[in-house]
Amino acid sequence: GGEAAISVYNLSAGLSNFLAPAIAVVLLPWFSTLGVVIAYTVLYLLAFVLCAFIRVTQPGLENANSSNTVR
């Protein structure tokens, strides 16, 4: 449960610390600093859109929503 969520969080934080400079190294020879900023902006917007498709089961909330009783 919670350990897996923390592991995924740590993995994503580590990957972003690795990939952000790598993206800059790849793009800077062909584009200016503005090109790198635009690339990061596009990636953030893509992540924003993808977040709408993330569905996580929450047993406590599913049980509460399936019945009309207040707990």
Order of helices and strands: HHH
The computed structural class is mainly alpha
Helix content: over 70%
Beta fraction: under 5%
Regions with little confidence, pLDDT below 50 for 5+ residues = none
The shape, in one word, is elongated
Give a quick account of the main beta sheet: strands, pairing sense, barrel closure. Answer: none
Distance between the termini: 23 Å
- The tally of beta strands, per DSSP, is 0
Query: What count of helical segments does DSSP give?
Result: 3
C-alpha Rg (nearest Å):
19 Å
The mean pLDDT is 84
Question: Which key terms come to mind for this protein?
Answer:
71 residues; mainly alpha; 75% helix
Explain what the structure shows.
- 75% of the residues lie in helices and 0% in strands.
- It has three helices and no strands.
- Helix 1 runs antiparallel to helix 2 (33-51).
- The radius of gyration is 19 Å and the shape is elongated.
